[in-house]
Design a protein that fits this description.
The chain has four helices and eleven strands, in the order H-H-E-E-E-E-H-E-E-E-E-E-E-H-E.
């Protein structure tokens, strides 16, 4: 009897160790995903100024091609280089597919990109922040490499992922037209934050997003309000973020 008791006790300890290891490994996976882009985002206080903490499942690349400038997680870009809206690429993070399979590229999901300025009128006194600079939606995915639309003015470039899926630009819808950054003189550097959003569930090409009532505060009438509140209102979740700094010339 004592021998059987010993076997049962060892089995129980093993099961407890396995159960304890699962969330630990998941936490490590979450940390590995977040470490790629989130360090600079957190350091710039985009979390919590713009977004709550989240696990990036994409990287978002943006380029002002006419000025040969690329948005690169906190680099400096002069406002004069941002007059034409940027083109973009969405890259899936491979490890995120395992952790959050419902937040990967899907042909029946619509993606939205929004840039916002949390530092309007200045970071020291952001009385107009967040300020909405653009809402472009209708970004969909095709599983074949033959779906090309090649209009730079539509802010399109193909998604270069391991599975050769592409963003289709023909359905882009500008819910809020692009307004280039124009930080006032003497207000220092502004953070211009681009966020990639998608619906929590499959949306079958949904476009019925609520248009913000105004650009300052995204129409919510209070300092600091913006992307977080608008995403919640429209049942969207963040998948990626990127940003740059801009400052008015002397």
């Amino acid at each position: 009897m004592e021998y059987l008791w010993h076997i049962w006790f060892c089995w129980l300890v093993t099961q407890l160790q396995i159960s304890a290891a699962v969330p630990l490994n998941q936490n490590r996976l979450e940390d590995s995903i977040k470490s790629a882009d989130s360090v600079k985002i957190a350091k710039a206080k985009i979390i919590p100024d713009v977004l709550d903490d989240f696990i990036p499942t994409f990287s978002l690349s943006l380029s002002y091609t006419s000025a040969h400038k690329t948005v690169s997680l906190g680099n400096n870009i002069h406002p004069s280089d941002t007059h034409v809206r940027p083109v973009f690429e969405m890259h899936r993070l491979p490890s995120a597919t395992t952790l959050l399979p419902t937040r990967t590229l899907a042909s029946n999901r619509t993606y939205t990109i929004v840039p916002t300025d949390p530092d309007a009128t200045s970071r020291a006194d952001p009385i107009n922040g967040q300020y909405c600079h653009w809402i472009v939606t209708g970004i969909t995915i095709s599983a074949t490499s033959s779906s090309h639309g090649t209009d730079e003015a539509n802010a399109y470039t193909p998604v270069t992922s391991p599975h050769s899926v592409y963003a289709v630009a023909t359905e882009l819808y500008h819910l809020i037209e692009y307004m280039p950054p124009a930080p006032p003189k003497g207000t220092g550097k502004h953070r211009y934050v681009f966020v990639l959003l998608a619906s929590k569930d499959d949306d079958n090409g949904r476009k019925d997003l609520n248009r913000p009532k105004d650009r300052p505060h995204w129409g919510y009438g209070a300092m600091g309000k913006g992307v977080r509140e608008w995403a919640f209102e429209n049942d969207l979740v963040p998948l990626a973020a990127n940003f740059f700094y801009a400052k008015a010339g002397k």
